[in-house]
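In response to reviewer comment 3 from the previous cycle, which asked for concrete evidence that the modeling workflow produces usable outputs, we include below a single protein chain processed end to end. The sequence was submitted unchanged, and the resulting structure tokens are shown without manual editing.
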Amino acid sequence: MRKYNTPHRRRVIKTRLTEEEYTEFSERVSLRKMSQSEYIRQALIKSSIRPVITVSPVNDELLSAVGKLTAEYGKIGGNLNQIARCLNEYGAPYNALSQEVRAAISELAALKFEVLQKVGEAVGNVQTYQL
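The workflow returned the following structure tokens.
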């Protein structure tokens, strides 16, 4: 009896392929002149699977709109900060108005945070895998 110096393999992996997938698989195996089993083993050992984040076109539009909205929030916040600085320079007569501007800045920041949080929940991340 002849002995081979190969590991004893007991585990079996099964899968189903479409005709197109099987044709492509067979072509790849024959090009490399190896058995189907060896090809699959090599593919498993040598390949790496990296997650790819896929965003649908609807989400692209939403993200674009949110980007524009956050840019507007930034401009409005900058304007409010300039107004607050001017009011602080002139002191006492404008204290009440200054406090209102500070409150508006705070509300604007909270609204921006809330919008970004809701968009994150709505969009989420859809993961596909790329070999």
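The chain has four helices and two strands. We consider this sufficient to address the reviewer's concern, and the full set will be provided in the supplementary archive.
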